Amino acid sequence: MDRRGFFLRAGALGATALVASPARAQDPGADRLRVPGAVQRRTSVTDAQNDETVKAIERRMKCTCGCNLDIFTCRTTDFTCGTSPELHKEVVALLEAGNTPDEVVAAFVAKYGEEVLMAPIPEGFNLTGYLLPGAALLVAGSILTTVLWRRHRMAQVAEPMEAGVGGAPPPVAGASADELARLEEALQEVER
Amino acid sequence: MTLLGNFALWVALLLGAWASITALTGRWQDRPAVASAIVRSTYGVWIALLVAMVALWKGLFAHDFNIEYVAAYTSRNLPDSYIFSALWAGQKGSLLFWAAVLATFGALAQFTASKRYQDLMPYVAGVTLGVTAFFVIVMLFGGANPFDRLPFTPPDGRGLNPQLQNPGMVIHPPMLYLGYIAITIPFAYAIAALMSRRLDTGWIHAIRRWSLVAWLFLAIGITLGMWWAYVELGWGGYWAWDPVENASLLPWLTLTAFVHSVMIQEKRGMLKKWNMGLVVATFLLSIFGTFITRSGVIASVHSFTQSNVGYFFLVFLVVVGVLSFTLLYTRWDHLESETQLESMASREAAFLFNNLALVGIAFSVLWGTVFPILSEAVRGTKITVGPPFFNRVNIPLGLLLLALTGIGPLIAWRKASAQNLLRQFTWPVATGLVGTVAALAVGIRDFYVLMALGLGAFVTGTVVQEFGRGVRARIRMHGEGMFSALIGLVGRNRRRYGGYIVHVAIVVYFVAFAGMAFKVTEEVTLKPGESTELRSPFGHTYTLTSLGVSQYEALNRIVSAATIEVTRDGKPLGRITSEKRQHVDSFGQKSFEPSTEVGIRSDLREDLYIVYAGSIGGTEESSFAFSINPLVWWVWFGGVLLVIGGLITMWPGGGITQAAPKRQSAQPGYAVSMAGTTAEE
User: Most exposed: B40, B74, B596, B600, by fewest CB within 10 Å?
Assistant: First the structure.
């Protein structure tokens, strides 16, 4: 490039910069991101999104996008999900139509099936889901307690027989009752 | 490399299968050379699988995209640390990793085995090599060969899922695998004891450390998984009762039951059948976890791609279960207790109830995990069993377990007198009551939270009392300083006091979990310079001001970083940045959906958790999810405490301290200290 060409190009660049700068300063999109696609979000946060009733209802129901999260968690976690924002709008619409939270949930179950609930309804076969672990533990605990109690009783019966007539402890030479008690305690301490 | 890898897999399979069949059919008895060959085979299989693993690593680091696994999980612009961890990022590689680690443990078990157990070791080798061979069979015949080649060579690989590009994911899966895999060694000893009919407590002593190794690695793996979920997934929690999370918890629970009940067998010769059953069940649960993760039969966010591999595991699970319990049944009469329980008020009884609670929780978690399948089979209706179900069923059981954690150590072995019980329980119960009243006084009204805090205080009281008495006794007996007495006390009985530290860790976990009941979350849209306020459960007011979004390119991603300036009660706390990352391949093309990196400010009381949700209309006006998560720091601290306690418990040595021999050498004769006076013989 010759000297004339260089100055012409520099002048053109400078003029472009002078023309472009004020325009950029006045552009309402001056804070536009260089790669907007990576962080695109359609709408601002609404008051309903922070409403505790809405959140509580959404926590009871699963997002149907296949993520296994509840609607609230999905819409506040997976911002690429298009399903949870729509489900949120459905919840808000049903509440605005005067439904109670339980009615909103019932409407979702009617539309999407029982699978939409984060926990099954405690009725019918589902009760086994809720009650069986506790019941099994209770039964096992009762059996264990009964068995242990019987063995405990048997051991109590056997103890005086081993100890001799009247249940008196075998004599230990030169040890007072107090010393024996302390010895027993020390032995138990060692055994622990 | 693929040729070498395939060759190594075949060597491992043939050698492992021969040794396993020969060992388990008993064709080595009275033939020492064969027995020795079986044991040596464990080293051969170990070397073969190490070679296969190194071959795959070589392919990964060489960017040999003709290997399907390399093309599926790495790219040219993937950082080296993640190329390293890509070995276990996918189904096929993780199977190889599993087999190689199992072979390593199998070889280590042989190498470290005492001569006392020489007649068990061919059986142990048979079991470990049989399981290893099964994993190699899955790789070679289940469509999961990590050395499969593509018919073409792509110019670049797909790259690693962004959620796996996290330091937690470099160490969390190996830790969990180490736990799962280490369970095979106690199982192998149990089968060896059953087959050889050597059902005294010998095999129990042999597996004590291995059980603790498995327990500890599972605990570390689970805690690291919680940490990864918290910092990476962006939903602000660490445990979601996902089927794969549950699958890792199940063997940990039964193993925890075992490490308690095995003490009763060691000290009293009781519970032999129960312990044997627990070891077998723990192994089967570890395989069940693998089946869940790899079959896709239950929907989970953690699952590998759905494949036929899961059905191999299902068949293996059924076959091993039937064979193991049949073997146990045939040896039933050899497993009679040597002594009987003497009293309901004994540590044995307390441990039995502790075992019941642990197994009960394991059953409840298993039941909830498989209940959707049962429901669909019985009613034909698909249902979801999520956190509300598990919390409802398991929180009461968990609190029962917490109570038993405190009760167990307070009761003496064999039989505790009423006087002894009163002496032991007074201080811890008082501590528990004080804890509950204090929680009520600060306004906590949630029943479960109150119970967790009260019982946590009770268990802490128990542990403090035990340490306090032990330290005082040492100070009195040896004239040591408090710190030396504490060190000496723990060193003298590592298992007992290490166990108490683990109990404190469990308390810390429960209290931290209870904290999440007070979580606060708000979604806000802010333009640069705009602020919002958030009130924390501890009464602080956070002011969060958006400083805008900056975008830049990193090695394999375009980063959009939203920065928030934070003040608490007017005091500046600094800036927190949350990112959106668009990962790209080495040609600049999008390789995955955008991922989110959360911004966290953590202190002892609460975490401020910031998630950048996205920007409105391509401007810097951005939406955020702000959360205050109370007591989360304590979850990680509980994890550290648990590891410390676990390490102390399993550390070799212990027993007689240094102080005792010194005292003996200074004072000849036999000395008995009673009530502060010393009577010499």
Answer: B40
